[in-house]
């Protein structure tokens, strides 16, 4: 199967987890706000928002990917790189929420930055592919 047949399914199913995360966030805010705390709430919101927006970006990206003329192998590589980047960037907020402290770096902030680099590399690859194909 083509990468653009499988990867959109992964992105759409991942959006279901974002939906569940929105429900969980709403529950925390309305029932257990004091337990979550202001700092953790900010990181929860950031992780949730980044995941949703970046997964929608992934769906748009996968619409343009076939126009690049990349081989199937390269399409798999950049598509998976984008998805891993999205999961790493948004997931890093949740990791920091769990183990980080205000004003200091953690494994979560490193994961978020690594995800951002993967996303940037995948986006540049798409742009180059589209320019070359034009």
TrEMBL record:
The chain crosses the membrane at residues 6-26, 47-64, 76-99, 111-131. It comes from the Bacteria. Keywords: Membrane, Transmembrane, Transmembrane helix. This is Uncharacterized protein.
